[in-house]
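Input/output pair, single chain:
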Amino acid sequence: MLIPRKMRYRKEMRGGKIARLATQGNRVSFGQYGLKGLEGSWITARQIEAARRAMTRYIKREGQIWIRIFPAKPVSAQPAETGMGGGKGAVDHFVAVVKPGQILFEMSGVESSVAQQALQLAADKLPIKTKVVSSR
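Output:
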C-alpha cells in the first residue's frame, strides 16, 4: 500500500492521534473546579503524581480531588549500547494520552481562590499548557 509522502513522517502517525479535540472527558463532572489541558501530549505517571501531591499539600487535605486521567499506555525503551535488531526493549514507564480540551484534575469542597491556586501549582508540574475551569 502506498502512503502519500506528506503523511509518511508526521508525528501523529506514529504515537497515536492526539491532535484532535477531546470529545469525552471535556467537562467538569465530579467537582466544582477543574484543570483542562489545552494541548495534546503524553503525561507520565510521575508527572501526574507530582501534580496530585502539589494540590493535596496546598489544600491541606481538605476538600476532594479527582484524577481524570490514567497512565495506561506502556512505553518501552532499549537498553544502552544495544544494536539494531536487538528486539523490543522492556517497559520503561507508563503514560496517559491527553487530547486538547480534556479535563485532567477536578476539585471541590474548598474556596474558589484556594482551588485556583492549587490547580495552578498542579499545572506547573505538567508539560502542557492548561487552564483552570469551573462547572456551571
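Residues 18-74+92-134 form a domain with the Aldehyde Oxidoreductase; domain 3 fold (CATH 3.90.1170.10). The helical segments are 5-8, 11-14, 45-58, 112-124.
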